[in-house]
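== Sequence, structure tokens ==
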Amino acid sequence: MNPAPLQGQLSFLREIDQLKRVLRQTTLIDASRRENSAEHSWHLALYALTLAEHAAAPVDVLRVVKMLLIHDIVEIDAGDTPFHDATAQAGQAEREQAAALRIFALLPPDQGEALYALWQEFEAGSSDDARFAKALDRLQPLLHNTATDGGTWNAARLNEAQVVARYGPVIERGAPALWAEAARQVRAHFHSSSFLKDAGRMLRIENLSKRYADHLVFEGLTHDFGPGCVALCEQDSTGKSTLLNIIAGVMTPDTGTVWIGGHDLAGEPQAARPRLAYVPDD
């Protein structure tokens, strides 16, 4: 037995362990922490196994799974590039290309060249398999965001049109049926008719702890409408504006920021006021 190929394979496997340390912006669905890129790749592999029937064209599921397991290996060197940060994306392609050449070269030539070619195919979206894989790569964080009251969209201050433009084309190209469901969830997220759900989704609080009428309203990274505020909203329609006045007036943050509809309430109370008071129709 020639030990050289085995040593290269083991070296590659040791190297890719580092992907577990690369944190993405997307959180787990329970919002307890950010997911890492290895978890993301594993999750996408299961997306492919589960959702292959919804691909725009017949796909080789095993090839799609392979693509998704390796597609972010380059982040070991290049790091995770935030999807909504145009500045961070400068030079991304070059960084990832260099990383791919280094990491796949750890393998014996036949394996390394095959995986590198598969990675390139994914990046280019040059096959039905690759287009479906890219659709899933875009779908997973979208579903995490709709499940976590907006997730990364809140920090990036994205509106519905921006979300549709950034996610829709890639998902629809690889899996139109999945985009139809994703678009429905996006609409539901941005057009909830429940005031408390709508307000809770738009509020993002950092390092803020204030009390109103002996009820803890906001603390830390959570939004929790205390009993007093809930009662105000449930009494009649004027409760909505009353709650708004409490937040905009009495609850001036000591530190941190309060985001409402893409505006910093502390810095732009007048701009934020109309958005919080607005309740979309069904």
